[in-house]
Amino acid sequence: MSTHSQQAPDVRERILRTASELFYREGTRAVGVDLVVAQSGVAKTSLYRHFPTKDDLIREFLLREDEDFWRKWDEVSAAHPRSAEQELFAQLQWLGDRIARPGYRGCPQINIAAEYSDDNHPARKVAVAHKAEMRARLKRLAKAMELKDPETFSLAMGVIVDGALSSGTALHHKGPARFLQSLARTLIAAQR
């Protein structure tokens, strides 16, 4: 294997890691490729070799965020195989913990959807698919809990989760996880 092919994944990863940190902290429109190049320490030609356009880089950033999010969701799901209700509350706990972490600046998918109104933008497509997947997973949990209207539950819980992800730690003095879990209890009671 040549030295170039060994370095290519490292360069790509360095570019993506740097861009991801900048995009999350500053917003994608505020960050130009020149800043990504300067902070990652790679040549601009290397950036464009791996990401032909800034939109490609933004899309990859969001796919990376998506992968991380669903990996954590799946870990929590695997830890609660017998009770959909326990799983839901565990999911809301880690989501609340995510919101409460230092440096939290909102949900990357919601941020992207706000920055790009064009439904054909590659990153917006990832964001829309993420939210659809969230509703689908919430609906599966609602069905497993044998709630009356899983579709309505998933829509309502999805809006609550999105609101929490957008509001950050301002949600409640006891923390986002408790706030989310309290609202989930209310929705579940209304659906039984």
Describe this structure in words.
This protein folds into 2 domains: 1-52, Arc Repressor Mutant, subunit A, CATH 1.10.10; 54-191, Tetracycline Repressor, domain 2 (Orthogonal Bundle). It is 76% helix and 0% strand. The longest helix is centred in the middle third of the chain and has 25 residues, at 54-78. It has 9 helices and no strands. The protein has helices at 3-26, 33-40, 44-50, 54-78, 84-100, 108-115, 122-144, 150-167, 176-191. Helix 7 (122-144) crosses helix 8 (150-167). The chain is mostly helical and 192 residues long.
Strand-and-helix sequence, N→C? Answer: HHHHHHHHH
Structural class: mainly alpha
Number of strands: 0
Helix content: over 70%
**Poorly predicted residue ranges:** 1-5
- Counting structural domains, the number is 2
Instruction: Write out the CATH superfamily name of the largest domain.
Output: Tetracycline Repressor, domain 2
CATH architecture of the largest domain, by name, is Orthogonal Bundle
Q: Determine the number of helices (DSSP H or I, runs of at least 4 residues).
A: 9
**Per CATH, what is the topology of the largest domain?**
Tetracycline Repressor, domain 2
Average of pLDDT: 91
CATH class of the largest domain: Mainly Alpha
Spatial separation of the terminal alpha carbons: 61 Å
Morphology call: elongated
**Strand fraction:** under 5%
**Largest sheet composition:** none
Radius of gyration based on Cα positions: 19 Å
Brief synopsis:
This protein is an all-alpha fold and 192 residues long. The chain has helices at 3-26, 33-40, 44-50, 54-78, 84-100, 108-115, 122-144, 150-167, 176-191. The chain folds into two domains: 1-52, Arc Repressor Mutant, subunit A, CATH 1.10.10; 54-191, Tetracycline Repressor, domain 2, CATH 1.10.357.10.
